[in-house]
Amino acid sequence: MRDRRGGRRRGRGTGAVPARFRRRILTAASPLERLLIIMVVVALGGIGAGSLLPNLSPKIGKVSGLTAASGPAADALAKLTVDDAQNASGYDRDAFGYRETDDDGNGCDIREDILARDLKDVRYKAATGPGACQVKSGVLDDPYTGKTIHFMRGVDTSAAVQIDHVVALENAWASGARNWDTAKRRRFGNDPYNLLAVDGPANQEKGSASAAYWLPTNGSYRCEYVARQIGVKSTYGLTVTTAEKDAMLAVLHTCPAQQIP
After folding, report:
1. pLDDT band at 67; cut points 50, 70, 90
2. φ/ψ (deg, to 5) at 83
């Protein structure tokens, strides 16, 4: 998957979990010890339950209640099809036509539209003409990290704010989009509902990872993040893996009233 500057990037199998914690979890003497390690790490912050759940015994997760959740978002998740045989072979980012459409006819691609939507104190490149919808500067309250980012358009500065596909394109391909026609893939690739302006490094760290392997370090945003992924997958009929579903449930366990955005 190409990053916002043209290189390729792929999701990590273990998300943002430091190696020392992965080793402790994988070599734990018992499932209960694994659970205790995970609970301590999550309590310390900075690491999402989703990136740890793949190493947790499913039985212990269910018994502990870690993957039990209720509420509107959890109800929507329960309706998604579980597919543990997802296949990303043949994936091509270009098949989604990202930034190749101008559905609102304002003369700018979807990146400019999302920047204008998500940033505050937006200033444009020009008052009229082709640059009138191109964002020159603005302030982002980044949902993924909780940081305030002062965006300035430029060769060396634009990548500080990137546009993330909340359900990553490669994940979408593996969970159903490989079977879509071109029009539906292009609609998905440029759907504002699945797009957020976010911290560039956080977006690169996420790569193509699902909630099973990556969650925002900003804990206060995790419920909405997972709920938006569920909403997108519901809208487009995409599937989830067991690990992905359990990670989402672990997050929603903390916010039973969570709605689908």
Report:
1. low
2. -135, 105
d(CA 158, CA 138): 11
Order across the sheet with 148-152: list the strands: 120-124, 135-141, 148-152
Domain holding 114, by residue range, is 89-207
pLDDT digit string, tens, across residues 164-181:
999 999 999 999 999 999
- Give a yes or no: residue 82 inside a domain: yes
Q: Which of 242, 209, 230, 238 is nearest to 14 (CA)?
A: 209
- Token readout for 214 is 């990556």
The tokens for 203 are: 């977006």
- H or E segment and range at residue 25: helix 19-26
> Given the DSSP bridges, would you call strands 148-152 and 161-165 parallel, antiparallel or unpaired?
unpaired
* Boundary of a domain, candidates 178, 207, 236: 207
